Amino acid sequence: ATQRARPSMHSSSSTVDSDVRDTIINLDHGDPTMYERFWQQAGDKSTIVIPGWQSMSYFSDAGSLCWFLEPEFAKEIIRLHKIVGNAVTKDRYIVVGTGSTQLYQAVLYALSPQDAVEPVSVVSAAPYYSSYPLITDCLKSGLYKWAGDARSFSKEGPFIELVTSPNNPDGDVRQSVVNKSGGILVHDLAYYWPQYTPIVSAADHDIMLFTVSKSTGHAGMRIGWALVKDEEVAKKMVKFVELNTIGVSKDSQLRAAKVLQAVINSCQYPTSLGSLFDFSAHLMEERWRLLRAAVRQSGLFSLPEFSPGSCSFLNRSFATQPAFAWLKCLELMKDCEGFLRSNNILTRSGKHFGVSPQYVRISMLDRDENFHIFVERLSTIHLRHSIQV
Ligand code: PMP
Predict the structure, then answer these.
(1) Which of 175, 238, 285, 374 has the fewest CB atoms within 10 Å of its CB?
(2) pLDDT tens track of the chain, all 389 residues?
């Protein structure tokens, strides 16, 4: 994520300073590279070796509803939810996906009536995760259609409401907002883990989506899972994954099983960095403290405030410390993303999330080096620059 804007030809110390100033810090994507440090110290505890003859068949568990789900991975998912206490797994079907991104599409397919005269509306309260509208409408499906902000949704007929909690981009802990019947809720709980927000109860919704991308930091493994109450919905989701990719990489599922096992072990037998959740919760706390100090110093921005809650997993009270900073610029700066870009900080404009470009979303999950350059630069940005934009 780090690129040099202008390669340095000299090696004097002032060149080193300007080199740091010119470094482009890309915090547009939520790439969870901050977790690398934990997994580096975990060493072989999270390593697997797969011989060439293994995992060759399409099938993982031919007789079960989700026939491409590796039983070992399913077992670790249940153990992890039990130990963290963030979701009910009892009487649920587990459907594995190539990231929760594939499961989102599987859910839309599963919940849309096949014989409807018009596509079912898909809504989420703004600011909503920027990928939802893009994924929903990319194939111009006849089954479902993006219908925007759930708060202003008033159309008659069936709808699907996405409830992301804590929310991407603003970290808000959410419940459904559409106040009428005929809707089906999908809970995207990618960030309902103790490093981001207090675990106050085990989520007990009909359809819940999770991903390793934001829980363990293994975004490149492309593994997500859905906990689904209704058998028919789970079957249709399995059908979608079957039609779409004929299952999900076994190599990735076996690696995910090993990683979840290492997370569980880190909770039971913490090392010098503590459990994965101790490590990442402390890092998030420290980063939010540094970011709030930089924002105060700059005087140009504001951040959302969160009230504390008691976390049953970490046994202490703290406020949500989201994976993204939802930064609001002063009124006179109309284009916050452009302003930050002129300072070599790449972020995502509020317009992608259904709100004003006065907001930007900034990833809090980058490597230490980039994060520190970012907060340092933010704290010294002067208004002089902003008025030029
Ligand atoms: N849902 C939300 C709310 C997310 O923020 C993300 C990742 N940015 C995803 C889903 C997608 O996760 P995955 O990498 O598992 O596809």
Answers:
(1) 175
(2) 344 443 333 334 445 556 566 899 999 999 999 999 999 999 999 999 999 999 999 999 999 999 999 999 999 999 999 999 999 999 999 999 999 999 999 999 999 999 989 999 999 999 999 999 999 999 999 999 999 999 999 998 899 999 999 999 999 999 999 988 889 999 999 999 999 999 999 999 999 999 999 999 999 999 999 999 999 999 999 999 999 999 999 999 999 999 999 999 999 998 888 999 999 999 999 999 999 999 999 999 999 999 999 999 999 999 999 999 999 999 888 899 999 999 999 999 999 999 999 999 999 999 999 999 999 999 999 755 545 44
In this structure, is the dihedral angle defined by the CA atoms of residues 366, 370, 375 and 377, taken in order, positive or negative? negative
Please identify, by atom number, the ligand 1 atom nearest to the C-alpha of residue 129: 3
Q: Nearest C-alpha to atom 2 of ligand 1 is from which residue?
A: 190
Cα(206) to centroid(ligand 1), Å: 19
Q: With a threshold of 0.90, does the pTM exceed it?
A: yes
- 131 C-alpha to ligand 1 centroid (Å): 9
Token code pair at residue 39:
């997994």
Q: Residue ranges of the domains in the chain? A: 18-39+273-388, 54-268
The predicted complex's ipTM stands at 0.99
CB 211 less than 6 A from any atom of ligand 1: yes
**Class of domain 18-39+273-388 (CATH, top level):** alpha beta
Q: Is 99 in the pocket of ligand 1 (CB under 6 A)?
A: yes
Bridge partners of 183, per DSSP, are 159
Ligand 1 atom 8, closest CA: 30
Query: Which H or E run contains 148?
Result: strand 144-149
**Which atom, in ligand 1's list, is nearest to the CA of 164?**
3
Q: Is 101 in the pocket of ligand 1 (CB under 6 A)?
A: yes
Phi then psi for 345, rounded to 5 degrees?
A: -120, 115
CA of 170 relative to ligand 1 center, distance in Å: 14
Integer CA distances (angstroms), 136 to 28, 117, 139, 206, 270, in order: 21, 18, 8, 21, 41
